[in-house]
Each structure stands twice: as structure tokens, then as C-alpha cells.
Write the C-alpha cells for this entry.
Amino acid sequence: MSDFLLELRSEEIPARMQAGARADLEKLFRKEMEAAGVPLGHIVVWSSPRRLALIAKDLPQSTQAVSEETKGPAFGAPEQALEGFLRKTGLTKDQLQVRDVKGKQTYFAVVEKPGRAVKDVLAEAIPAIVRAFPWPKSQRWGAASASTESLRWVRPLSGIVAILGEELVDCEVGGIRSGYATKGHRFHAPGDITIGGAHDYASKLSACHVIVDHAERQDLIRDEARNAAAAAGLTLVEDEGLVIENAGLTEWPVPLLGRFDEAFLEVPPEVIQLTARVNQKYFVCEDSAGKLANAFVCTANIAASDGGEAIVNGNRKVLAARLSDARFFWEQDKKTPLSVHAEKLSRITFHEKLGTVADKVERVAQLAEWLAAEGIVPNCDPVLARQAAELCKADLVTEMVGEFPELQGLMGGYYARAEGLPVAVADAIRDHYKPVGQGDDVPTAPVTVAVSAADKLDTLVGFFIVKEVPTGSKDPYALRRAAIALLSLFETCGRSPEIDTIVVEMVFTLSYQHMIRARNVDPTLDRVMKEYWPDFPFGLDDAKDYDSRFPVDRPEIRKLFLDKVQPSISAAKSLYISNARFASEALFTFFIDRLKVQQREAGVRHDLIDAVFALGGEDDLVRLLARVHALQAFVATEDGKNLLAGYKRAANILKKEDWRGFEGEIAETGEEDPLVMVDDPDLGPIIAEKMADRRAAMEAADYEADPAEQGLRDALAIAEPQAASAVEREDFAGAMIALASLRAPIDAFFDQVTVNDSDKIKRNSRLSLLDRFRAAVHNVADFSRIEG
């Protein structure tokens, strides 16, 4: 058994591609070895900027001889079939074997394949791996690059080391032949290094200032960067992504601390951190008070003789230039109020079917105001909600966000504060994109919740109205993420809006905006409508008295509305109203599906989710969620487990007896129930029999019930209204407690009462009682869907 080393050396591999390259190298190597029948043990894959390395432990010297059998045609089959089989296997007829297969003589081809030297297998596999490597981007180089058939690699491939044990695996790829020699650090050890094998590969490179293990480099950067900050009395701002990226840029990492001009700290800290991170790959530091310090940590790729002083000075100058740009953007953007910035949003298309970003902002403003006014977002000032929504996208046209799109929203919050806007408005602008994914903070401030929810509602409803919905794995507008975020926001409110209402209001808004765009109506019309019809288009259908809306001395305004607005809005609405029903139904189903996914990922059992959702008739997603959580807590208790067992037993009995629990009572007049008044001679007797059973159940009070039977009746008489009242109050935990009171009575009923009594009146009465028990449980959740 021997260890195998493969190193593929090239010019610098982009840091972002190295993790994928490691995975691809192992995958391709395993594929080639498995195809050749070489058993594999432990495999290690490393990467650095200039090399990919793989070490496979304990490879055999040769593969095992194998015998391959191929079943052929039956003995006596047509000659053409036999000839085809012989061509396929490369054998002659006398080399075939004849065996009995289920009483039929059949030809078999048995080919003995001798074992091969693993070194030869590797020599064939290495070129195949190199040529099949799936780099996201690759290039050709040199004279051979004139041909499209020439070797492609992420950067020019310069060397291959392939050693099995201590023997060279001789191979050649694109004119590059394998050998024992590699190179060390580009500056510290640029000459050749002779590798003896996998056993000394890492140590020899380390002696030449190359740490080939990427994980080791990451640990070194992480620890030394912290130490550099701590030595200056500071705390490093942790950034694992930056650790990985710096490890991918260096072979001999040396973290160094530097300082920048303290005057730059007047720029928002997120801007400084992003400038340092994105442009320069630097870490930033905080002081003892937790505020951003005027310090950075860069990662050099050499051990400098001056301790890194020249490196730090050079990096300081580059960072200063970047921070100067950021400070300029900050100062320039603050000179213009957000409301003026927002006017430029009409130049940006949100979506060809949904108008501009300015159109979207107007819809979001109306929705945010509505969510606040309706109390869907409790304790929210509608005026502040509208103001924040009208300004929430204004920073998209600022210089700072143009340079750093990642800061959208955040910079809007800073500009709002600098402008002196209310804190609630500034916070809402800053956080209205949240939550952007699972694990992100969910806003709780009322104005922020209203704007964030309105923004996501507008996106979801808008795209569903124009039928741009997710399909399969494709979700180009991130609607699934928006739905999950919206569900989280609803939960903070304690209730959710009716999707139907939102869809209708969005249809009106979208239609009006479409009318303005498509018919090229004079912009003065828009201003007139906002002045004389402030709730337009939401109040369009409710307001019939046009004369009361428009001034008597301005008949031209009324005429403008009657001549242009009414027919235009009707024409535009027809483009959207056809999709309204689809949007309403599809969107609610979409929310339900997202809620199920969200809860499953949160650890809620799928059967409990189904048990609640199967009830139907619920349009408040927050109430559904509360019921799911209450049910999960209940079934985990002993009362819950035993009640579930009792329910299952009752349901099985009712199913076996085909008891459907006909509802309603026979009229006191004694008139025949309409169910039996049928002309079908086959159905009539069946229904009549069922009605007779129901009469018998209704007359059950004429016999003296067993104590356990009466106990269940009494318990139901108390539990049913209690559970129903609790559900009405949205106290689902209380509803579960009411159901829990049925545990002992149902246990006693099954222990002491014979359901299938020979007395038909007793039997039907007890079946009816079990049906009543089942119905009481179903008012809270469909227990038939709960496993266990």
C-alpha cells in the first residue's frame, strides 16, 4: 500500500474558485479510480493561490483481476443474434459458455480481466482529470492556444507532480510532463523543490514559505489578526468570509495592523468596513467602547525584513484614497433631501409590467398607510408609515449606494437622520428590507414593520397579478424569500391581512398607474386626482357622487374625470382584473406552502402542520401558525398522547361502522326528512335506513346511560363550548386544555362501555356520542392526520 500525491501548479487561482476546485478534484479523482476498480481510503485535498494538491492514502500497487460475465441469446437462437453478441464481446463461439437459466439453455460470455498496475491507471487518469476539470472560467495560452482543442485551465498550468509511494507516475498533459519538482514561495523560495512523496510534501513546502493546507492558513490568519488588534488594545471585527478569502490570496500569510486618518470616522462605520473589505480585503477593528476604530488589519504574503512597515504604509495610502471617495459621496448625498432623491426613481424601471420604482413606492406608501390605519400593524402611526414608505427607496439613486449597492436602505437611514426626519421614519428606511433571509433580525418597530410588510406585499401581489410566479426551482424575483420574510413580519403583528383585500387594492392601483403610462395622460390629471380625490383609486368604486368631490366653479375638472379617467381606468383594469382571482387564490396557496416549509425547517412535524391546515376556512396565517404551535405543545404531553389514542380508536370504530354522523334534527312536526324524498328506488331505502338510525340516536335519552357513557356526555357538554370559545378568542392553548379534559372520560368510556351493544338504540347512541367526540376534536385540529 502506498500514498499518492498529485499537485497541479499554475498561475494564481482566484480565491473564490478554490473551494469548488478542491471539491471537483476529489470528485474527478474518485470517479476515475472507481471506474478502474481501485479501492480508495482517506483523501486529502489542499489549495493555495498557485496549486491544487491531492493526497490519497493507502492505494494498492495493482488492481484485482476480475471476471466479467455477460448474458447472451438462448441456445438455438437465430444466427444473426449470436453473431451480434460475439461482435459485442469480441469472443468466438467456442469461447462461450452454455448455462441453464430457468430451464432454458443460454449463452454466456466470460471475460477474465487481469489486474493492472495502479501507477498505470494513475498515468491515464491524471490527463483525463485535467482535461475534464470544470472551472467556472478558464483560458488557453501559448502557441497551442491557436487551436480550440488546446488545454484549458483557470490560469496557465505550469507543473505537475505525481508520485505513488516514491515512484514517479509518468504522464503528460498539454506538453507539461509530470515530475518530482515543484516551486516554493514566489519571492522567498522561487527555485525548484524536489518532493520525495506524499510523506514530505507539506513539510518541504513549509520550509520554503508555502503553507499548502488552506485550513491551516485560515487558522493562522484568524489568530494572528486577532492578536495584532489586541496588541493595539482593539478588538477585531470577525469576518469569516474575509478569513477564507485572504487565505486564498496568500501562501505565507502575515497579518499586519495599520492606522488610517481618524477624520474618516465621520463616515458611517458600515461604509468604512465595506470599503476596506470589498476593495482591499482588510479587516476593521473596534475600540473598547465597541465603536469603529481608525485601524485595519491587512494580510501580507511575505515575511518582510522591516516587519511589514512598508507594506502597511502602502496599504494605508490605498485605503485613504478609497475612504476619500466614500467621504465625498457621503457629503454630496447629504446636500440633497431624500424627497428630492426620490423624484429620480421615476427613471428606474422596476419591472416592465409593474412600472417604475416610483410607481412601486407609491403603492408601498398606500399599503403601509392602510396596514397602519386598519390596525394590522398595531400602534403604528399611518402618517409616519406613509412618509417612511415614500422615502424608503430614495437612496437607490445616491452616489454612495451607486458605489456600494449592499448599503441600500442602510444609507437611506443615515441620510434621514442627517436630514432631521423622525427616528421612526429613519429606522424604517434603514430596516425595511429586513428580514432578508432565515436568521436575519425581524423588525419589531411598528413603522418599520408596516413599510417592510408593504414592500414585500407589493412585490408578491404585483408579480402574481401579472403571473410572473415561481416555477419549480426558478424564482428570479425571490418571491419565496419575500413570502417567508412576510410571514415572519406578520407573526410580530399577531395577525395577517386578508390577501383578497390586498389583491383588490393592488388591482386598482396597478390599473391606474397603467392608465397613466399606457395612455400618456397629461400629468396634470394625476395632480388633479390627488387633490380632489385623495383616496383614489382605492375609493373609486365606493364614491358615486362625483359632484361632491369636485368644486362647482371648476366644471372642467369633473369633465376631465368623466371623459378620461373613467373610460381609461376601465380599460386599464381589464388588463389586470382577469388575473385578480388567480392572484388571490394562487398567492394564498403560495403563502400556505411557504408557511409549511418554514415550519418544517423550524422543526415542526409535518403531520401537525397538515392537521391544522386541513381544517380550511382560515385566512389569517398568524392564527394558523399559533394553532400549529399549540398543537405541537399539546401532543407532546401525556394528555395529548392519550387523547390522540382515544381519538384514533373512536375514528376506527366509526369508520368500521360506516357512521357518517348525519347532521341536523328531525322537525318537531314529524314531517319526513327531505333526504328520504328521492325517486331513486335504490337510494331511497338506504337513506331511509340511515334516517331510522338517526332517529334511534335522537331517542337515546329514553334509556339509562352507563356511568362512563354519561360521564363522556357531561365532559363533552363542558369541553365543546370551552374549546369553541377558546378558538374564537384565538386562545389555542386554552382550546387544547379544554380537549385535555376529555382524556379521562374517553378512556373510561372505552374501558367500561360496549359500543356495539346488541340493543340497537344503545349502539346507535354510543356511535353518535363517539361522533360527537370526534367532531369536538376536529374543531381544533384534524387529528386523523396526526401520526402515532
Q: What stands out?
A: The chain has five domains: 2-62+117-207, 67-113, 214-334, 338-601, 608-785. DSSP finds 27 helices and 18 strands in the chain. Residues 67-113 form one domain.
